[in-house]
Write the structure tokens for this entry.
Amino acid sequence: MSASRQFRLASRPVGEVKASDWDLVQAEVPEPGEGEFVVEVTHLSIDPAMRGWMNEGRSYVPPVQIGEVMRALALGRVLASRHPQFAEGDLVQGAFGVQEHAVSDGSGVQKITVAQGVSPAAYLGVLGMTGMTAYFGLLDVGRLQEGDTVLVSGAAGAVGATVGQIAKIKGARAVGVAGGPEKCRLLVEELGFDAAVDYKAGDLHADLREHTPERINVLFDNVGGEVLNQGLTRLAHGARVVICGAISQYNNTEAPSGPSNYMALLVSRATMTGFVVFDYADRYPEAAAQLSQWVTEGRLTSLEHTVRGDIETFPSVLLELFKGTNTGKLVLELA
């Protein structure tokens, strides 16, 4: 059969991921066994969590092992099938990895029917794990109430942009923290945030005070570091801090120090909770139905940054994620 390329982890990165941390391997397109099907990957989800998956050590999922295909959520078309529930031509979503073709037994795979006016990439973003993360993180972990003020870090990223929009749908006030005036403008003018703070502009502490005069009830953190530390100074009584990620820390070569303002949790009688969206797998259909309805109604915007290229562009696209050049969900569409 024809050849299929895949990226395998060659070494554990130290700091920023380097070209030498990857092996680009050419393999044969697999043949499906009984109860299996073969997928041609069309879209790769580029996620901050990928950096953590490359590290050795205890986490919420096992690390990618040296020599293994890099883990990635993806969309693809079924090329050949010996599985009763998947037919040739089906569009499917699953953890197919960074490769051009994958074989699957259907575990954890969903069939996708693309709605009119919605891009396939949206099913890796607001209608996929990104949307699920925002939905459960804000509504279940953050226990959002109408009238709350929500502060979202990394607000122009995939999860953050969705969190702010859901907060507005639910009758809350949304304040985003993002890098640069263009991203802040987009949050307010296009996504409906009430305010946006540019963490690159100067005095983050003063800017947060200005835009959260009555403090915050939910702090949804995707960034960690100083943004989290300053957000803690704005907690209202009984606030909920949701730890979704810490993209500012993932390439550190030394262990990050904890937030020095953590005593604000005591003073405010607040809680800080970490969560992983996989814990809500049995409720994915609930979230998917609600997110789809909001998108159809025009109340929730799917914000995507799609890069088109071949599989060889993957390492450079991954690095763009940590430079903050993307707005919304970063997706690599394979030529």
User: Anything to note?
Assistant: Residues 188 and 195 are 6 Å apart (CA to CA). The mean pLDDT is 95. The first strand starts at residue 3 and ends at 9. The radius of gyration is 20 Å.
